[in-house]
Amino acid sequence: ALGALARMSVASLVRLPASELARATEVLTRLGLGHRSTARVGTLSGGERQRVAIGRALVQGASVILADELVAHLDPATADGIFTDLRALAHDGVSFLLTTHEPGVASAYADRAAVLRDGAIAVLATTAESLSAALAG
Fold first, then answer.
1. What is the pLDDT of residues 60-86, one digit of tens each?
2. pTM of this prediction?
3. Rounded to a whole number, what is the distance in angstroms from the first to the last CA of the chain?
4. 14 pLDDT higher than 70
5. Is 124 in a helix, a strand, or coil?
6. 60 beta partners
7. What is d(CA 88, CA 20) in angstroms, rounded to the nearest whole number?
8. SS3 for 33?
9. Neighbours of 51 (CB within 10 A)
10. Which element (helix H / strand E) includes 55?
11. 20 to 30 A from 42, CA-CA: which of 48, 90, 117, 132?
12. What is the pLDDT of residues 94-106, one digit of tens each?
């Protein structure tokens, strides 16, 4: 629910309006964390924390989310689940700009990818095939 604080008055810091809490719960449920809505962030796994961060941005009303190494240090199944969630959100109009050092992640999940070398775009790929071919060559 912290994502809602930018829209709230100082008095709301004491108690968020029910509508904001309902929105936060709705977002958590959509991200598969509705059952953890009362858990402290410190008790969440790495994947759950990443989903909470995405949820916070969604509650803020973000239409574009920037994520640096979003699934670093997560197991492949958890990473796949997060990317599945991102794809569903993208179909609903949320855009994601992700950075990764893992070309396989970009090939598997990105609609478009830019490969940077020495601070400049070396490859601009619009399909998994073109990205794979560029990385192989």
1. 899 999 999 999 889 999 999 999 999
2. 0.78
3. 46
4. no
5. strand
6. none
7. 22
8. coil
9. 23
10. helix 46-59
11. 90
12. 999 999 888 788 8
